[in-house]
């Protein structure tokens, strides 16, 4: 049983720890945060990460029948998140993860003209839902499962990774107490996974520089409560254009059931580099974004304009957006990278948590295969890198081009200079084409679950 250290207990780190544990590794998580606080706002996790969408086949019989049969007759595992042993209900129940089963993503111009809508998750025929969740609740559900299956003593907080030494058959990791900066005793392991996020020190230790690049964009995020639902209460809505776009979606199933809307919203805009260290929690004022929000006043979500939603928001947080050129490999011998540490992404197309979870799935599959084949940790890391490095690099590039949200840019560019009525008519006439050429093209290019490939 390989002693495996996962550095970072975020969504990717927790999913990786669970996948490796299920594959037979002896896993321990070291997390820098001294305590786990409610940080962040909403995230969307796509159906492919919740459970693999049956390789594109259309099954109509009961899920349990399929799940019981497939692994035996096709030697295929077909779940991702739910395969980590967490029942979907834990993510969905209002008293637990409280996630909404997302039904659609709709796109509007800055003026509020409907361009297109794509069905997602169950509504699109997937076997599992796409989830719209509060990041903290989603993360807590994963973390609780880590604490349950690994044991409290295997999730070590207040431990910031500082450096590593890599040898032929083992790795030595160095940590310090986050609160005091006191060095901790070195940790020897067979396998180390850097899941320490955007500003990954593991990545820096492996690559020297490796610093993420500022993309010239910021996203302002907030949460507010509305006494009505928008559309079916399960829809993600976007409006705007390339230089400014607004997203909002519901993230509380409990509130949806009461006909209310816990609205997670985000405004992505151009900004020069803010300077200094990027912080997840830099508070912003409404005045910083009022003008940009006003531009979208023709849009209404649950009866409110983007500005009115922001006015109801207690705390607005501004995030500088970074990404990094795709890496050539995730294979560093007995060390590898996962999630934002491996491929920080611009926040388009709901890919951040989704791809981190799919990395975790691939790591578990690779570990299991390598142990069966006797190729050891190095075999596992090589297979994982082959499965995930190139495909996630393509997501980085596709997201630099706005992912599916590029439909807003294309509509804005193609209607430039048109009168208002002309624009409305143009959107009605061209929405279907843009849906196929931009949204569906992007979706089709996104990575699929690795299991079928890995086990072929
Ligand atoms: C506080 C926070 C809030 C976020 N809020 C949102 C949001 O509202 N919406 C959204 O779409 N995405 C959000 N994200 C990003 C999103 O969660 C990630 O893109 C995605 O889930 C991929 O997860 P990850 O595990 O790779 O990285 P992360 O979620 O960034 O997790 C990395 C983990 O590693 C830990 N860590 C960092 N450095 C070290 C170190 N040196 N040693 C040990 N541990 C370390 C961090 O404390 C963190 O727990 C947030 C991320 C963070 C950290």
TrEMBL record:
Keywords in alphabetical order: Monooxygenase, Oxidoreductase
Superkingdom of this protein's organism: Eukaryota
UniProt keyword Oxidoreductase, yes or no: yes
Record-annotated FAD-binding domain positions: 2-396
Pfam families membership: FAD_binding_3 (PF01494)
InterPro entries: FAD-bd (IPR002938), FAD-dep_Monooxygenase_BioMet (IPR050493), FAD/NAD-bd_sf (IPR036188)
PANTHER family: 5-METHYLPHENAZINE-1-CARBOXYLATE 1-MONOOXYGENASE, MONOOXYGENASE
Protein name as annotated: FAD-binding domain-containing protein
Source organism of the structure: Durusdinium trenchii
Upper classification of the organism: Eukaryota, Sar, Alveolata, Dinophyceae, Suessiales
């Amino acid at each position: 049983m390989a002693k495996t250290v996962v550095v970072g207990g975020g969504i990717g780190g927790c999913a990786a720890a669970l996948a490796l544990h299920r594959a037979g590794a002896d896993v321990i998580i070291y997390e820098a945060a001294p305590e786990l606080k409610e940080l962040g706002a909403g995230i969307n996790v796509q159906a492919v990460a919740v459970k693999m969408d049956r390789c594109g086949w259309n099954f109509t019989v009961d899920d349990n029948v399929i799940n019981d049969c497939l692994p035996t007759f096709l030697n295929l595992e077909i779940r991702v998140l739910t395969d980590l042993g967490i029942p979907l209900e834990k993510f969905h129940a209002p008293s637990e993860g409280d996630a909404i089963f997302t039904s659609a993503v709709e796109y509007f111009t800055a003026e509020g003209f409907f361009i297109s809508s794509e069905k997602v998750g169950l509504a699109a025929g997937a076997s599992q839902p796409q989830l719209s969740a509060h990041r903290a609740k989603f993360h807590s559900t994963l973390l609780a499962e880590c604490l349950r299956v690994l044991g409290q003593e295997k999730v070590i907080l207040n431990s910031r990774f500082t450096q590593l030494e890599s040898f032929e058959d083992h790795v030595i990791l160095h940590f310090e107490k986050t609160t005091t900066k006191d060095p901790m005793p070195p940790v020897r392991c067979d396998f180390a996974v850097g899941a320490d996020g955007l500003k990954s020190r593991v990545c820096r230790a492996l690559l020297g520089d490796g610093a993420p690049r500022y993309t010239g964009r910021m996203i302002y995020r907030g949460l507010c409560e509305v006494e009505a639902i928008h559309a079916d209460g399960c829809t993600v809505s976007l409006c705007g254009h390339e230089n400014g776009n607004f997203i909002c979606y519901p993230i509380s199933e409990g509130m949806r059931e009461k006909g209310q809307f816990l609205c997670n919203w985000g405004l992505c805009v151009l900004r020069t580099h803010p300077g200094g260290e990027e912080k997840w929690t830099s508070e912003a004022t409404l005045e910083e974004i009022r003008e940009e929000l006003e531009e979208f006043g023709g849009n209404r979500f649950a009866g409110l304009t983007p500005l009115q939603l922001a006015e109801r928001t207690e705390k607005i947080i501004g995030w500088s957006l970074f990404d990094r050129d795709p890496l050539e490999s995730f294979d560093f011998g007995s060390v590898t990278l996962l999630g934002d540490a491996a491929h920080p992404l611009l926040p388009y197309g709901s890919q951040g948590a989704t791809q981190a979870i799919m990395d975790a799935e691939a790591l578990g599959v690779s570990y299991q295969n390598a142990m069966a084949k006797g190729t050891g940790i190095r075999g596992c890391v090589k297979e994982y890198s082959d499965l995930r490095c190139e495909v996630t690099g393509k997501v980085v590039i596709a997201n630099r081009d706005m992912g599916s949200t590029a439909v807003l840019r294309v509509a804005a560019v193609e209607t430039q200079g048109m009168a208002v009525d002309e624009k409305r008519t143009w959107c009605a006439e061209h929405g279907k084409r843009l849906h196929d050429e931009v949204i569906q093209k992007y979706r089709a290019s996104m990575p699929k679950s690795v299991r079928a490939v890995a086990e072929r």
